[in-house]
Write a structure and sequence with these properties.
The complex is a heterodimer of chains A (about 80) and B (about 150). By secondary structure, chain A is α+β, with helices and mostly antiparallel strands. Chain A is built from two helices and seven strands; from the N terminus they run βαββαββββ. Chain A has one domain: Beta-grasp domain (Ubiquitin-like (UB roll)). A five-stranded mixed sheet of chain A has the order 2-1-7-4-5. In chain A, a hairpin with a 2-residue loop joins strand 4 and strand 5. The longest helix of chain A is centred in the middle third of the chain and has 8 residues. By secondary structure, chain B is of the alpha+beta class. Chain B has one domain: Molybdopterin biosynthesis MoaE subunit (Aldehyde Oxidoreductase, domain 3, Alpha-Beta Complex), CATH 3.90.1170. Chain B has three helices and nine strands; from the N terminus they run βαβββαβββαββ. In chain B, the strands form two sheets. In chain B, strands 3, 4, 6, 8 and 9 form a five-stranded antiparallel sheet that branches. The longest helix of chain B is centred in the C-terminal third of the chain and has 18 residues. Classes of the chains: A alpha+beta (about 80), B alpha+beta (about 150). Chains A and B meet through loops of A and helix 2, helix 3 and strand 8 of B.
Chain lengths: ~80, ~150
C-alpha cells in the first residue's frame, strides 16, 4: 500500500504531473505529505486539500491507503 | 435526490421535465418547482471568451454535489432535488449547470435553489480554464458574487 497524492487544474500544470505515490513508512500530516513529494517547494497559500475526497486542513493525519488531493480554489457553476 | 455529472451537451429543460414526470409519489404534494440554469457567456471580465474547459475531480465532485443537496434539505422543506453539471469542453450558449428543487411552498424552493448554487460554487471541485478569442487561455481562480454591477 501507499499514499496516493493527486493534483488538479493550475497546480497540476505548475508541477507538471497529476499524481505521486508516497511509500507510507509512518503516519503523516497533510503538510508532511506535501514536503515528502515536493521537497524544497512551498505549498501554495490558497491551496485546498482533500483526504479521501473530504475537505481537511494541513494538520489532518494521512494513513497508508489514503488519497490526498491538492488543488486551487474551485470555480464551478455559472458566474 | 439525484446528481449527475455530464460530459456532453444536454437540455436541462427536458431532463428536469422528465425527472418531474417520474415523481409519481409526489404528485399533488409539491406546489413549487424552482429551476436554475447556468449558461456559458461569451464574455468575462471585459474579455471575449470562445470556450472553456471544465476540469473536475471524479467521485469527489458527485459526493460534494450530493452534500449540497443534503444540506439544503436539512435547512428547508425539500421534497426532491436534482442537480446536473457539465464537465469538459463547453462553448458559449451551452448550459453548464441546472438545479431543480421541489417543495410544497415557493419560499423553500427559491431559498434552497439559491443555497445549492452558492454552496456548489465554493465546495464542488470544478476548475474553469477559459479560452479567449485572442487565443490566450487562463485558469479562472475567483468567483464573482452572483450580481452584475448596475450602472
Amino acid at each position: 500500500m501507499s499514499i496516493k497524492v493527486r493534483y488538479f487544474a493550475s497546480l497540476k500544470e505548475q508541477l507538471g504531473r497529476d499524481e505521486d505515490n508516497l511509500e507510507a513508512v509512518r503516519e503523516y500530516t497533510v503538510s508532511q505529505v506535501w514536503t515528502e513529494v515536493n521537497p524544497g517547494q512551498a505549498m501554495p497559500d490558497n491551496v485546498l486539500i482533500a483526504v479521501n475526497m473530504a475537505y481537511v486542513d494541513q494538520a489532518a493525519v494521512v494513513k497508508d491507503g489514503d488519497e490526498v488531493a491538492f488543488f486551487p480554489p474551485v470555480t464551478g457553476g455559472e458566474r | 435526490m439525484k446528481v449527475s455529472v455530464i460530459d456532453h451537451l444536454f437540455d436541462p429543460w427536458q431532463v428536469v421535465a422528465d425527472y418531474q414526470q417520474g415523481l409519481t409519489a409526489l404528485k399533488g404534494k409539491y406546489g413549487a418547482t424552482c429551476l436554475f440554469v447556468g449558461t456559458m457567456r461569451d464574455f468575462n471580465e471585459d474579455d471575449s471568451v470562445k470556450g472553456m474547459y471544465l476540469e473536475h475531480y471524479p467521485d469527489m465532485t458527485e459526493k460534494q454535489l450530493l452534500a449540497c443537496l443534503q444540506q439544503a434539505a436539512d435547512k428547508w422543506s425539500v421534497l426532491d432535488a436534482l442537480l446536473l453539471h457539465r464537465v469538459g469542453d463547453i462553448y458559449p450558449d451551452e448550459p453548464i449547470v441546472a438545479v431543480a428543487i421541489w417543495s410544497s411552498h415557493r419560499g423553500d424552493a427559491f431559498d434552497a435553489c439559491r443555497f445549492v448554487m452558492e454552496q456548489l460554487k465554493s465546495n464542488a471541485p470544478f476548475w474553469k480554464k477559459e479560452l479567449l478569442t485572442s487565443g490566450e487561455s487562463r485558469w479562472v481562480e475567483k468567483n464573482t458574487n452572483g450580481y452584475a454591477k448596475k450602472s
